[in-house]
Design a protein that fits this description.
single chain, mainly alpha, Rossmann fold, five-stranded parallel beta sheet, two-stranded antiparallel ribbon, globular
Length: about 1250
């Protein structure tokens, strides 16, 4: 037992460390009357505002502390400790008084503490010098101070009122533990004086106090573990809820920072405008960094971000816009989502706010919620800087919306945040930011110096290739010429120096230096001239142009393998084979216009390069890439590929064939072509109509062939013109109007388009994702969904780490190429249906957002993000995995138990008369709970240990290791650590429990046989008759046998070492589906009934069930899929029960497996109930061991241990042949103990 004064001192020091210097000084001089005065002032103030709250709730606490102070003065003499148990109360009620909900929560907490606080005035004088009483005083001080310390942290956060209620919800478990500790100490010193009398001897008191301390220590350890698990779960749930991939922004930042040359851009932090922007005030909240294309704005932004990262207590958020944002009318949702995600990663404690205020109420993460969330997150930070680069890459309409959204959402007097916008000088942006402070990179001396430093470095690299061939002066002239013509554009310099690096002789180098282009447009034009040079073969020219077409006119950023496969298919090569696939070095044809981007993509070197290719006038007046030609070539490649992928349908190939084709890389274009082929064809046909072009014959042939994808068997000729259709064409209404003259294609396109549009409006709430995928394929009027579905299945097989059919190096290369973003969303209307996720887990989190679900209240639950389709399923889950834990036995109850055990031992030493021995079992039965098993005698305990040893000896090492791992997996970490520290092997405890149930079952069998032999009615074989009752000489024992007995088998809630609460028992198994008959613990007003209807005949829920939608019932997964449990547990697994889909099943084998599982589960449950010392060492028993209760008189243990399954005894008819299973070698004959085959 710890020293009381040391306990108080330690608690005081912990609190002191968490306080500010100001509060330490204030608390030391605060008296209890100051708290009363503060309460009166608050009451007066609230009445003036007509917002008075019931302050009397705190009165019991203050009265209790006043009495407590008088008792603990002995321990606190000469120390400042005492004032710190009430001073924090004054501070916190003053801070919370202006926030009604927070003040109310705080008052409730103080009221709970006041009611749990021992009333020391009753026993203070009596036990004033009692060491145990002083120990309790110290523990109470420590507990109260712990509450103050944790509550104080809530009030010290910036904008604490925003986070308080969310954090308070998470604090509830810890607060309940604090109250529970106080209540335990209250039981020791208050209300039950008789409890003290019963434990008047010091040894017992010390034992009880040590038990309280140990219980408190274990509870604290478990709470800390659970809190950490809860924090992680909330963090991951919040990241998933926000639903943005901020990792792409990190990759963009790293890629752009890699372009920075050492020693450049460092001046930006010294610019006066930047210094003012960095200051922690509300001045100059927006700064605009502007410059011409290629001036190095993106690299400059990354330098600013890195600088901000090194400033302590400052948060930096950033977003690099790209051409994907150009297709969004308002990219604000994505950008605000990234800002929120970056703040959350920097401060994981914010997950509590997101979880409790947004996720649990079931709110979406749309723009409306982000407008509320982001300001809250910013207000909680000391100060934040936000950097947005490339806003000019967004659409014209999106630019203005985004600027307004950022300023209205991220700026404000309480937010302490500022924004840096980086862009070209676009008219829309200039109208919004023209009057804001700005940093202009055009004609900037610092930029010129950086360019000179960069050019000198690059020219030195070029010079190293011509050592001794050219004079150094030539390279100096080239460097000077490049600097003079750069005009402040880093990108131009980069393009030119890369061109110089491609010169392999002095003449070419001098020629290149003499003809330097002026500006970026000339630089781009010069690169394109090289691509179309007449000296280049037509095949190479065509290949280069097709690469640029795919990159500039695709509907999303493409992966490397998608561009390679798309370019490989053209007019003269309409199918993809191993010998027609292109190597990635083909991209060198278009460098330096393009470069490899993040996540296995290829991107333009700059946004202006794509603009030039598509919009700028090139040579004869038109753009280099004409949209009609690009959509023709891309659309043709997609259609031609899809015609070859018809073999992916299950009726046309086997799974092994599909996996082999995909492994060879012949179907990498599937996801893009399947989703966007029609869009490219329609865009091309629109140009055909507008420009009155002729449709190429080769395209019409492939369009005719693709009609085979129609399930309706469309026979219409895609080339057949329909004048009536053209007459009714309305381009502004019918998106497919340009296809009307081709009736077959128009019909197929209409059906596919209508189907995909309908998916967006369909309610998938009550469908599991596996059902969604199957229903999507089944309801699609074409075979496109089916082909894509089977491609995805085969792809995920290849990406599975356990798949090893092909060579390791080949699989590694395949996964490196296709693994990134391979797990596509299975809702095909989603934009992530073609650009997926890196892992199965990321996809599952994303898909959960498509469904409106009932979510588990426990954020730490593994299925929290998945949710449930109905309230009944949620209630079933909560009942199975999150049951309410019964209150622990009070200290008074523990004391009475100690006294009762001691008295029973004393009585057992006195010989009993025949009358006493005959009556005692009846009284013992009456005192036991109904249905409880009789206590075990030492002889029975010793026998159970022998049986357990037999089990252990019979089991192989492999069996024991597997069983031990299974048991440890079912224990919580705290218990596992406790068993390990005390040297307890859970496997031994399990075998001891199993031995007990075996003995009871065998005794029931022997008793039944004896009763049959005497002409007596045997008791139900499903009930085990208590041993104590049978040992009795009571002639009314048979009447007592009619009392409800505990069911030993078929009830996973029942332990092997005694009865559980009768309210949890199911005397009638058929009543388990009726909530009114399941006992009070199972009744929930919100719960919908659910039915367990399984082939095993057991209606108990084992926590691992599967749903049959056909008949709205549940079955045990292990009964239907014993060898495939993991796959059957997946959400997308399709299941139909045995009644709806009859199939041959070995029902006896299923029954045995279910019974064995119940035995194991019960053994696991009882491990938690086992004493932390060897089993049966100190077993209490109900009465003296007289000759009438001689255990050997009624039960033949020798025959039990030496039982022979081949006995001629009729009772052996219930036995089965021995098996190799370790629990059958002991010789137990009831069928449920047979091995599970």
């Amino acid at each position: 037992m710890a020293n009381p004064k040391a306990t108080i001192a330690k608690a005081f020091e912990n609190l002191q460390r968490s306080l500010s210097p100001e509060h330490r000084h204030t608390f030391a001089s605060t008296e209890l009357k100051d708290v009363w005065s503060a309460l009166q002032e608050i009451q007066i103030s609230q009445r003036k505002r007509n917002s008075a709250q019931n302050l009397r709730r705190i009165e019991p606490l203050l009265r209790g502390l006043e009495k407590y102070a008088k008792v603990i003065e002995v321990l606190c003499n000469g120390t400042p400790y005492l004032s710190f148990i009430w001073a924090p109360i004054k501070l916190m009620i003053q801070l919370a008084s202006n926030h009604r909900d927070i003040f109310d929560a705080l008052l409730d907490a103080y009221a709970d503490i006041g009611s749990a606080l021992p009333r020391f005035d009753r026993y203070g004088k009596t036990f004033e010098s009692n060491p145990e009483f002083q120990f309790v005083l110290a523990e109470v001080y420590s507990t109260i101070v712990e509450f103050h310390q944790r509550a104080y942290k809530f009030f010290q956060c910036r904008a604490w009122h925003l986070m308080f209620l969310s954090s308070w919800k998470d604090f509830k478990a810890r607060f309940d533990g604090i109250l529970h500790t106080l209540e335990k100490h209250r039981d020791f010193v208050d209300r039950e004086a008789s409890s003290i009398d019963m434990v008047e001897d010091r040894a017992t008191r010390l034992q009880i106090l040590e038990g309280i301390t140990e219980s408190q220590r274990q509870t604290t350890a478990l709470l800390e573990s659970n809190e950490e698990i809860n924090r992680l779960a909330q963090f991951h749930s919040s990241i998933s809820w926000l639903g943005v991939d901020d990792k792409k922004q990190e990759a963009e930042r790293s890629r752009r920072l890699g372009r920075k040359h050492s020693g450049t851009c460092e001046w930006v932090g010294q610019v006066p405008e930047m210094k003012a922007w960095l200051e922690d005030n509300n001045l100059a909240p927006v700064i605009w960094m502007k410059g011409k294309p290629g001036a190095g704005k993106s690299v400059m932004c990354t330098v600013v971000i890195d600088t901000l990262d090194n400033i302590e207590s400052l948060n930096v958020c950033y977003y690099f816009c790209n051409n994907e944002d150009d297709g969004r009318d308002n990219p604000s949702e994505r950008i605000l989502g990234v800002i929120a995600t970056q703040l959350l990663r920097a401060h994981p404690e914010l997950a509590s706010l997101i979880t409790n205020e947004f996720i649990l109420p079931g709110l979406s993460s749309g723009l409306g919620q982000l407008r509320t969330l982001v300001p809250k997150l910013l207000e909680l930070q000391r100060y934040t800087r936000i950097v947005i680069d490339g806003i000019d890459e967004c659409s014209k309409s999106g630019q203005k919306l985004l600027l307004n959204e950022l300023q209205s959402t991220c700026l404000g007097p309480k937010l302490h945040s500022k924004i840096l916008i980086s862009s070209r000088k676009e008219p829309t942006i200039d109208a919004e930011l023209g009057k804001k402070p700005n940093i202009c990179l055009d004609e900037n001396e610092n930029v010129e110096m950086d360019i000179r430093r960069y050019v000198n470095h690059k020219i030195q690299l070029v010079q190293s290739n011509f050592v001794g061939e050219l004079e150094p002066e030539i390279f100096n002239q080239i460097a000077t010429s490049i600097v003079d013509k750069a005009d402040g554009m880093f990108l131009w310099v980069r393009l030119i120096t890369q061109e110089l690096e491609q010169c392999f002789c002095g003449r070419d180098l001098e020629e290149c230096a003499r003809s330097l282009p002026h500006g970026l447009k000339e630089a781009y034009g010069r690169i394109l001239d090289r691509i179309l040079d007449e000296d280049v073969s037509p095949q190479i020219r065509s290949l280069s142009v097709r690469i640029l077409e795919w990159m500039s006119c695709s509907y999303r950023r493409l992966k490397i393998h998608e561009i390679l496969d798309g370019v490989s298919i053209h007019r003269d090569c309409t199918s993809l084979e191993s010998n027609t696939k292109l190597h990635r070095r083909v991209f060198d044809l278009c460098r330096p216009l393009i470069e490899e981007g993040p996540s296995n993509t290829v991107v333009f070197v700059h946004f202006s390069a794509q603009e030039y290719i598509l919009k700028a006038s090139y040579k004869q007046g038109g753009p280099f890439i004409r949209p009609e030609n690009a959509h023709l070539n891309i659309g043709h490649s997609c259609v031609a590929y899809l015609n070859t992928s018809f073999r992916l349908l299950p009726q046309n190939s086997t799974e092994e064939e599909r996996i082999e084709w995909i492994f060879k890389g012949l179907h990498g274009l599937q996801t893009y072509a399947n989703q966007y082929w029609l869009s490219h064809i329609v865009d091309y046909m629109d140009q055909v109509v507008a420009q009155k072009l002729e449709v190429p014959e080769y395209l019409l042939q492939h369009l005719q062939e693709i009609l085979k994808y129609s399930k309706a068997g469309l026979i219409g000729d895609s080339m057949q013109s329909t004048g009536t259709a053209n007459a009714n064409c309305k381009n502004n209404i019918d998106r497919l109007a340009s296809l009307r003259r081709f009736s077959g294609i128009y019909s197929l396109a209409s059906e596919v388009g209508n189907f995909r549009e309908g998916l967006k409006r369909k309610d998938w709430t009550r469908k599991q994702i596996g059902v969604v995928s199957l229903e999507t394929s089944a309801s699609d009027p074409s075979w496109f969904s089916t082909a894509c579905h089977h491609y995805q299945l085969a792809l995920e097989v290849l990406l599975n780490p356990d798949f090893s059919k092909y060579p390791t190096q080949g699989l590694k290369s395949f996964r490196d190429m296709y693994g990134n973003s391979a797990f596509t969303c299975r809702y095909i209307h989603c934009n992530r249906a073609t650009d997926g996720f890196d892992s199965l887990q990321q996809r599952e989190k994303h898909e959960s957002k498509h469904r409106r679900e009932y979510r588990c209240d426990i954020a730490t639950c593994v299925v929290f993000m998945k949710g449930f389709a109905t309230r009944g399923q949620l209630a079933k889950h909560a009942k199975t995995y999150h049951p309410r834990i019964a209150d622990e036995t009070t200290l008074a109850d523990a004391a009475r138990a100690v006294k009762k055990q001691r008295d029973s031992v004393r009585e057992s030493s006195t010989p009993a008369t025949p009358q006493q021995s005959q009556q005692q079992p009846q009284s013992v039965m009456n005192n036991r709970p109904q249905g409880a098993e009789a206590p075990w005698t030492p002889a029975e305990g010793a026998l159970a240990l022998k049986v357990a040893d037999r089990y252990l000896a019979a089991a192989s090492d492999e069996d024991k290791n597997n069983m031990r791992m299974s048991i440890l997996g079912g224990l919580d970490p705290a218990k596992s650590r406790r068993y390990q520290a005390q040297g307890i092997d859970p496997l031994s405890v399990y075998y001891q429990n199993h031995a007990v149930v075996s003995l009871r079952q065998e005794k029931q069998r022997q008793l039944s046989n004896q009763q049959e032999g005497q002409g007596m009615a045997a008791s139900s074989p499903q009930s085990a008759v208590p041993m104590q009752q049978q040992r009795s000489g009571n002639p009314n024992a048979g009447d007592q046998a009619q009392q409800p007995q505990q069911q030993m088998l078929g009830n996973a809630d029942s332990g092997f070492l005694g009865a559980v609460d009768p309210s949890h028992q199911n005397a009638n198994p058929s009543a388990t589906n009726n909530p009114s008959q399941r006992g009070p613990a199972a009744i929930d007003s919100d719960e919908e009934p659910y039915t367990i209807k399984c082939i095993c005949g057991n209606s108990k829920d084992d926590g691992n069930t599967i749903y049959c939608e056909s008949c709205d019932t549940w079955q045990h997964i292990e009964c239907f899929y014993p060898d495939n449990v993991e796959e059957a547990s997946r959400d997308d697994f399709s299941h139909v029960c045995g009644d709806c889909n009859p199939r041959p099943v070995d029902r006896m084998k299923v029954y045995r497996r279910q019974v064995a599982k119940q035995i194991i589960k019960s053994g696991l449950n009882d491990i938690d109930k086992m004493p932390e010392r060897p089993l049966f060492q100190n077993i209490s028993y109900g009465g003296p061991a007289t000759e009438n209760t001689d255990i050997n008189q009624d039960f033949d243990f020798d025959s039990f241990l030496d039982h022979d399954d081949e006995s001629d005894d009729e009772s052996a008819s219930v036995s089965t042949s021995p098996s190799d299973s370790f629990w059958d070698e002991i010789g137990i004959d009831p069928t449920p103990f047979n091995a599970v085959e």
